Amino acid sequence: MSRIGKKPVAIPSGVTANIADGTLSVKGPKGTLSLALADDVTYDVQADGISVQPANDTKRARAFWGMQRTLVQNLVTGVTDGFTKKLLITGVGYRANAQGRKLKLQLGYSHDVDIDVPEGLEVKTPDNTTVEISGADKQKVGQLAAEIRRWRKPEPYKGKGIKYDGEYIFRKEGKKK
To answer: Who contacts 57 (Cβ-Cβ below 8 Å, separation ≥6)?
Structure first.
């Protein structure tokens, strides 16, 4: 039994949800998001919320139940509040600069790394060692953050690289004389 799946997803005021052609679309102040519906789960949109129930008693239906409810919750949260990931850059000479729809990174390579910001996302650099990615789609925000982090993962000896805010980097002791 899914404990998460039992709870209906609350729909705040200013948000509308409807099901058409096998997709659930949620519209709110931050935009519109949609989700392809799974066959093993039934969805019910009511005035107070969206309830998700397994269509049958198979193992696959029970496995999808909680995940699909969480995906619906992410849609509602995305169109109301949005999602934000914060990256911290550590290292001498490492810096970031947002210029319109591009993010320019200097990460110790012989060239600058230019990353195009996808449509629907916003990238800010409050200072030259912090990158804030925000948008309505949780998957797109996390994917862009992972692609930026991939250019210089944090290393365990000096801690240089790009890390998520709040991420703990396990530090190792260097060579001894």
So the answer is: none
